[in-house]
């Protein structure tokens, strides 16, 4: 699956709305915020603060999160997700990001969130 603009949250206003009204899905060092969207498929926005890591590691975390999202995007309901990396996220790895998204997918499918 291609990760085009239609699959991304781009505007600050959208990020803030999801952060204020979204359901929190804690997944270790990654916090996933979910809010129902009016679109046809799930979208994602990624935030990795400068306090978490240097630029190289921040970009690595973002790549892990994007790849994990690609793996479960087809199974997700139409929600907007914002993923916020917490300190220690550099140890999460790709497998940790996959497990975080699988847990979020399962919780959303059960109706535990929006």
CATH architecture assignment: 2-Layer Sandwich
Sheet bearing the most strands, described?
A: 4 strands, mixed
Structural class: alpha+beta
Domains (count): 1
Seen as an oligomer or otherwise, the chain set is: single chain
**Helicity level:** 40-55%
Ranges where pLDDT stays below 50 over 5 or more residues in a row are none
CATH domain class? Alpha Beta
CATH topology: Ribosomal Protein S5, domain 2
List how many beta strands DSSP finds.
4
Q: Summarize model confidence as the mean pLDDT.
A: 88
Shape: globular
- The Rg value, from CA coordinates, equals 13 Å
Give the amount of beta strand, in percent: 15-25%
Descriptive report:
With 114 residues, the chain is an alpha+beta fold. The model has no long low-confidence stretch (mean pLDDT 88). Helix 2 crosses helix 3 (93-110). Strands 1-2-4-3 form a four-stranded mixed β-sheet, with helices on both faces. Helix 2 links the parallel strand 3 and strand 4 (79-85). The protein has one domain (5-110): 2-Layer Sandwich (Ribosomal Protein S5, domain 2). The protein is globular, with a radius of gyration of 13 Å. It is 40% helix and 21% strand.
Topology, please?
Elements: H1 12-21, E1 23-27, E2 30-36, E3 43-47, H2 55-72, E4 79-85, H3 93-110
């Amino acid at each position: 699956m291609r990760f085009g603009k239609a699959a991304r949250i781009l505007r600050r206003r959208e990020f803030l709305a999801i952060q204020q009204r979204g359901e929190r899905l804690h997944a270790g060092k990654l916090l996933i915020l979910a809010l129902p969207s009016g679109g046809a498929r799930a979208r994602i926005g990624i935030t990795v603060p400068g306090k978490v890591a240097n630029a190289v590691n921040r970009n690595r975390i973002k790549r892990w999160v994007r790849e994990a999202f690609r793996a479960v995007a087809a199974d997700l309901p139409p929600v907007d997700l914002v993923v916020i990396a917490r300190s220690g996220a550099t140890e999460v790895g790709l497998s940790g990001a996959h497990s975080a998204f699988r847990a979020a997918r399962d919780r959303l499918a059960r109706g535990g969130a929006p």
